[in-house]
Specification:
Elements (H helix, E strand, L loop, with lengths): L1 H19 L4 H16 L7 H18 L3 H48 L1
Length: about 120
């Protein structure tokens, strides 16, 4: 009776462990979207975070294939964050470039105005 109870308890624990880590298909989808968005704003292989995100996504997909769902979710979440950081870095650089260009134009206008006086 004790052995039977022990087997049932272990089986329930095993099922509970499986149930707590479902396949992170939605997280993988979000990660792929984040990567696509980062690329859409101009992130390429020169942006280290994008490369890191792509590597982690591949690792997450491999973990999914091995049904290591907890590891897959963790890697996919990290990859999503890396992709979002890549996007933010690209957008920040573009904004900085625009600001520099505007400052250059302002300085040229100031010089022109000074020459007129």
């Amino acid at each position: 009776m004790t052995n039977r109870f022990l087997c049932v308890a272990l089986a329930l624990l095993a099922l509970a462990g499986c149930a707590s880590d479902p396949a992170p298909t939605e997280q993988l989808r979000l990660t792929e979207q984040a990567l696509a968005q980062a690329k859409a704003v101009g992130a390429d292989e020169h942006v280290a975070e994008l490369k890191l995100a792509e590597e982690k996504l591949l690792q997450a997909q491999a973990a999914m294939a091995e049904e290591s769902f907890k590891e897959a979710r963790m890697l996919a979440e990290q990859a999503e964050l890396d992709a979002r950081l890549a996007e933010a870095r690209v957008l920040t650089q573009k904004s900085q470039d625009q600001l520099t260009e505007l400052n250059n134009r302002i300085n040229r206008l100031r010089l022109q105005l000074r020459d007129l006086q």
